[in-house]
């Protein structure tokens, strides 16, 4: 459901009355009146160059084809495209563009814009008067992604490429043109409603996190609240301007004295879907955003990737975001409390192993307070282009107000109690967002592959002006770092 007063968008939708076998394992049965054709009959590759003054476009996994400056907004990444853009390919509204190396991850979509993209990318144009937005939605489904993966070739998974000749060999369904329009209208309307619900839930989460942050900061810099005896805890100057006064019996220690070691993982190619069954996933930097580990913030690894046991994450691990497209998310910390998936550490995430003298839960709280954020911001505000990266040397030099271990344990227990209600509300909202996203993915896939008939429902829906995609937040910020280097090659 979208909310307590809304019905699921699929309510009243039924399958078509007649189906036939498509002959394609990824597609299954399709409505009997639909065609199933190879892409060579539907698209032609276009290679128009010599338009160096057009705006740069990016082909993203999260939103398809967008302006590169929108991808860079809020990121420390810079435009690293070549000065001579004469070889860059022109993309016109209605063209399908894809990243050869990432098509099997979902980096494909229709362009509503005119601009240029990397010469290494592929531009396809409809041969007939079909609706390209129908194919935009079709090509971004999990089923098509797996089909694109099966047609991609390379020595290793990080070299897989969907070449134009192989794209043309793939078969896709083709509903009648008027039905394509109905499908697009329904999906635009559904996406608009679902994204509106997601944004409202995110706003509530933001307010709850502010409340949680205030509780944590007070406890990790002053200790437990007074018991009412009237005896204030004696304070001393920490000697650090941004930390101020701390309890007199506490110490100021650098992180390097509190840990045995800090490691990180690798950066393999992965698809933008969750690991299923016995498959493995690699964590994204957003897995510890706002102090809580979120195991669904991962991407499924290619089936050929060999798992290194030393970077498999376990319950109890403390993870720190090393790099992210947005500086405000760098340095986020969280501890793994439970695991449903098989996951490995990425190179964008540190893992800290604390000494026995340290209360780990207290440190997780301390690494999610304001004075810790001040140090992160100072560490990443250096050289141009480094504002999305937390150097390990800087992290180890961060200072913390440390109470005796038994007091630290009492503080962490207090914070667990005081913030559990807030965090429970946040967790519920995040789960609702996750379910909305899963529902959206499943609904779009069912509609574009003919599992549900939306023709009648679409006639009752108004036009949606520029239906917004779900706010990309972490996923798109990561793309800014992952994709720009290869797209500007």
State the helicity in percent bands.
25-40%
Radius of gyration of CA atoms, rounded to a whole number: 25 Å
CATH class of the largest domain: Alpha Beta
Low-confidence stretches: 474-482
Write the CATH architecture name of the largest domain: Alpha-Beta Complex
Biggest sheet character: 4 strands, antiparallel
N-to-C CA distance: 43 Å
Within CATH, the superfamily of the largest domain carries the name DNA methylase specificity domains
Average pLDDT over all residues:
87
Strand order of the largest sheet: 4-11-8-9
Number of helices: 12
CATH topological fold name of the largest domain: Adenine-n6-DNA-methyltransferase TaqI, Chain A, domain 2
Structural class: alpha+beta
| Count of domain modules | 2
Describe, in plain words, how this protein is organized in 3D.
The chain is α+β, with helices and mostly antiparallel strands and 489 residues long. It folds into 2 domains: 19-198 and 430-487, Adenine-n6-DNA-methyltransferase TaqI, Chain A, domain 2 (Alpha-Beta Complex); 251-402, DNA methylase specificity domains (Adenine-n6-DNA-methyltransferase TaqI, Chain A, domain 2). 33% of the residues lie in helices and 18% in strands. The chain contains 12 helices and 24 strands. A 4-stranded antiparallel sheet has the order 4-11-8-9. A hairpin with a 3-residue loop joins strand 5 and strand 6 (64-67). Helix 6 (177-222) runs antiparallel to helix 10. It is elongated. Residues 474-482 have low confidence and may be disordered.
């Amino acid at each position: 459901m979208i909310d307590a007063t809304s019905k699921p968008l699929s309510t009243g939708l039924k399958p078509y009355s007649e189906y036939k076998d498509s002959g394609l394992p990824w597609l299954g049965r399709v409505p009997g009146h639909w065609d199933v054709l190879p892409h060579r009959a539907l698209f032609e590759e276009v290679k128009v160059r010599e338009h160096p003054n057009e705006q740069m476009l990016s082909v993203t996994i999260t939103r398809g084809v967008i302006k590169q400056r929108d991808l860079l907004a809020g990121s420390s990444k810079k435009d690293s495209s070549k000065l001579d853009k004469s070889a860059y390919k022109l993309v016109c509204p209605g063209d399908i563009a894809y990243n050869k190396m990432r098509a099997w991850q979902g980096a494909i979509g229709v362009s509503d814009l005119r601009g240029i993209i990397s010469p290494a990318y592929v531009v396809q144009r409809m041969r007939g008067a079909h609706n390209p937005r129908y194919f935009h939605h079709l090509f971004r489904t999990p089923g098509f992604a797996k089909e694109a993966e099966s047609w991609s070739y390379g020595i290793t998974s990080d070299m897989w490429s969907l070449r134009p000749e192989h794209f043309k060999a793939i078969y896709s369904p083709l509903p009648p043109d008027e039905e394509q329009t109905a499908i697009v209208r329904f999906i635009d309307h559904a996406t608009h409603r679902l994204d509106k619900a997601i944004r409202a839930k995110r706003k509530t989460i933001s307010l709850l996190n502010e409340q949680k942050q205030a509780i944590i900061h007070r406890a990790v810099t002053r200790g437990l609240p007074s018991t009412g005896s009237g005896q204030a805890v004696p304070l001393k100057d920490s000697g650090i301007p941004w930390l101020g006064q701390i309890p007199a019996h506490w110490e100021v220690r650098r992180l390097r004295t509190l840990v045995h070691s800090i490691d990180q993982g690798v950066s393999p190619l992965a698809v933008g879907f969750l690991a299923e069954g016995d498959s493995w996933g690699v964590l994204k930097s957003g897995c510890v955003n706002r102090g809580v580990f979120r195991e669904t913030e991962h991407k499924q690894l290619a089936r050929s990737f060999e798992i290194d046991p030393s970077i498999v994450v376990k319950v109890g691990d403390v993870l720190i975001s090393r790099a992210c497209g947005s500086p405000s998310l760098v340095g986020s910390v969280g501890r793994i409390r439970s695991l449903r998936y098989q996951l490995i550490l990425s190179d964008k995430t540190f893992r800290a192993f604390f000494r026995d003298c340290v209360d780990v839960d207290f440190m997780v709280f301390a690494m999610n307070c304001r004075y810790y954020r001040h140090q992160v911001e100072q560490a990443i505000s250096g050289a141009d282009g480094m504002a999305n990266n937390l150097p390990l040397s800087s992290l180890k030099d961060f200072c913390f107000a440390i109470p005796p271990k038994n007091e630290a344990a009492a503080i962490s227990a207090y914070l667990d109690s005081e913030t559990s209600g807030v965090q429970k509300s946040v967790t519920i909202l995040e789960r609702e967002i996750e379910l909305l996203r899963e529902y959206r993915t499943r609904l779009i896939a069912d509609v574009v592959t003919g599992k549900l008939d939306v023709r009648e429902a679409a006639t009752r829906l108004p036009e949606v002006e520029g239906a917004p995609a779900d706010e990309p937040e972490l996923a798109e910020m990561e793309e800014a770092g992952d994709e720009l280097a290869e797209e500007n090659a």
